[in-house]
Amino acid sequence: MITKTFAVVDLETTGHSSAKGDRIIQIAIVFIRNGEIAEKFVRFVNPGQKIPPFIRQLTNITDEEVENAPYFEEIAEEVRNLLDETIFVAHNTDFDLSFLQNEFKRCGVEEWSGRKIDTVELSKIIFPSSASYRLQDIAEELDISLPAAHRADDDAEATSELLLACQRKLQTLPSATIELLHKKSFRLKTDLAALFYDALKEARKKSLPSEFSTFRGIPYRNIDDINKVEISHFDYPFDDNKKVEFLKATFPKFERRESQLRFMDTVWTALSEKSEIATEVPTGIGKSIAYLVPAAIQSMETGKPVVISTYTNYLADKIVNEEMKKLDIIFGANLKATVLKGREQYISLGKFEELLTISEQSYDETFTIMQILVWLTETKTGDLEDLNVSGGGQLFVDRIRKRSERMAPDEYQADFHRRLVSECSSSNFIITNHSMLLADSNRSNRIFNSLSGLIVDEVHQMGQIAIRHNEIVFSYTNWKYIMGQVGSEAEGQLLHGIFSLIDRFGLASRHVKEGLLDSFARFAEAFDEATAILSNYEPNAIKKQQGNRKVYPLDGMKNMKRYFSRVTLAISDYIDQAEAFIARLANCKNNMSRSELAYLSEWTYWIREIKIKAGDWVDIFFEEDYDNFTVWLEKDVRSIPGSLLIVKSPLESAVPVRKLIKRLKEDETGIIWTSGTMSIPNYDRYIPEKLGINDEVPLINFEAPSDFYGGAEVFIVEDMPEIQRVSQTDYIEAVTDAVIRTVMATGGRLFVLFTSQDMLRKTYDLITESEQLEEYALFAQGITPGSRMKLLKSFNQYQRSVLFGTSSFWEGVDVPGDALSAVIVVRLPFTSPEDPVFKARAAILSGQGLNPFVNYALPEAVMRLRQGFGRLIRSSSDKGFFIILDRRIDTKSYGKQFLASLPEVPVKKVPLQVMVNELENCYNRLV
């Protein structure tokens, strides 16, 4: 770089727009010279206006602090001179630099010019697996001090440390990686190319470190082999005192729990006798370690692995990162665990290398490539889920997933998935997920065979996974994206590259190429016509649905089959012609360059994707298996046709589970099905029956410690309006008032659980419009950007926070300790009677002479409420309130079943104000 001086800048302002009158209230500049932090410039600035309440709360900067500070006009020239001949650095230069430039212009000072570095852009590349790139999040992850986020002085210093951390990490990368980064960096938004070039000059002086290998010039990290522990015999501790001794070795504060010891014995019996059991094991008894200890002994004795199947990555990570360390202490040996998911979760290095050779790439694609190049130097699994990429980047990631077991000879050694599969047989544990487990039972060459046992945890989720595993989903945006990859002849597009190849080898006339274009145009026209009809579909028999999201069954579209047939014929003709191009070029592969081979491979890939879509189209619109499947349409009226979805879903989850059981029984494998919720009142075998687990398989229930739920209380708010007797608008207004008052009484740390996205959005909008919770951090599923786990992480980082969630937050989410003070249930979690799957299953039950409400709707809702309660108390020291706003739990006869499903905790029916008073008194005592 021309200069080695970096000026790291952070601004605090009254708002986001200088043009609209917002002003700076604090500025900080930290200078970095020759790789070290040097002098600092920090000033409060008088904005000439009151600081908005939200900004005061965010920055903790008061009007009194800036009252006697200089106006920016007084220091603008000084600030501009300080930035001369420096590289401007900020954590989001789009904001800080743009705001500062506008202020310079307003003050009549010459705008700054020079190179800039955005540490958001840089840290996303250098730390591609980080969960979040907000300054406070990435600082916490890298152990960078940030005493007060959103204070310019602390933020600027933390950003300086972040820049230095990125440079240090860059210096550890292989020279080939940095060279590839440098080649790609000229497409970035800020001036990182010079940074990479400086690092490259130093890296070229070093040889490739031994911890890396290369695949076609791309460095990746080697994985150290861990040998399975070889112990010829290890006696299971039948004596309870011996078990306690085991557990005390790793839990210094261990408390003896009889249920934990009995569960351990039950698991050992099932594994050693190769039998099958179902167990309901509540939170609080130490379930994971209780099944891992006998499983480890069984594996050591038999020399075969035990498979642990889970629903959430959280539990899989906990087993590998926490529980395995405890087992190593207990047994005095390093047990080996391999985490294995479906092959599409892993990178195909061959496909990634192919795409690297294509020069024309968007910013998102270029950026994601750079993230992957760094990630390959650190990943030990190749699991693409570990990457944190943008939405546009995710489309690129989907193109490099491993789709086939066929590999080139040089790829075989470098393939992550193959290596993990090969390690399974030499592992003590294979940690997988329900989807992978079910998929494996369909393979002729199974991965999970010759086992010493199977433990299926969170088994209540397996039915949902089994259904999803066999769903077919039509997405308008996904189809259009795939069609867009092959439909444009513009320069730089894939079709242009294919036509160039055809021309170079003289394999087709212009007439042949025009035939392909015409065929695609007919396909696109037929597709647009059919999807326009689907977008406008409004069945008369369906009552008007509230909200923007519409869901309709598709069984009334038989008279529209001719439009769907046109798509089928057009897509078939297009595929024939597109594959003819592949056939023409196949014999010329030996004479193609690497980039030309990449174009051919890309063309082959996308035509194969279109063939898959063609098969889905036929399956959805022409395979009318209404006895076993239901088909429905979803759309959001605000974004048609982009929001159009059509789902074909199986009605029965038991079939694939029975198939899995049959395969395992043939192998004489012990099976343990376990969950915190297996039964509900009046339905002891609810989950086993849903999954098709044989009635002869014993279901054993274990009790939580007697004091485990001592800190929990249930409130039923008895003066809420009755949900079925008022309009949705009136009910939402009452919910809004109840949520606001509850949040203010507890100081935050609440989940608010909804059963519909529409009601969540309307409640959230009313709360934000009221401005009564502006001092709280509000996170709303489907509104606040990010995945479920990202929202949960953000929620946990704020003391005064509220999370609004729908279905996926009712279960499978852990918020231990005082991070969660209350759960508010807006309405009892019944499935909508208009839900297509519900309607189809209800019709089947009615045909069998059964009541759909009693036999389906009610048990599902009771199970879901029980799961929702489970979010609140995760340890015996937790304290929390479960607040139910839906009065039906008290006024309807079926309400007793909901309450009976909850642990024995105090239940209070009180008016809202009485509850608020009790909450305030409770939290005042705690404070």
Give the rounded overall mean pLDDT: 88
State the helicity in percent bands: 40-55%
CATH topology of the domain at 712-926: Rossmann fold
Number of distinct beta strands: 25
How much of the polypeptide forms β-strand, as a percent range? 5-15%
Could you say which structural class the secondary elements and strand pairing correspond to?
Answer: alpha/beta
CATH architecture of the domain at 712-926: 3-Layer(aba) Sandwich
- Largest β-sheet summary: 7 strands, parallel
**In angstroms, what separates the terminal alpha carbons?**
54 Å
Q: Regions with pLDDT < 50 over 5+ consecutive residues?
A: none
So what's the CATH class of the domain at 712-926? Alpha Beta
Total number of helical segments?
35
Principal-axis shape: globular
Radius of gyration, in angstroms, nearest whole number: 30 Å
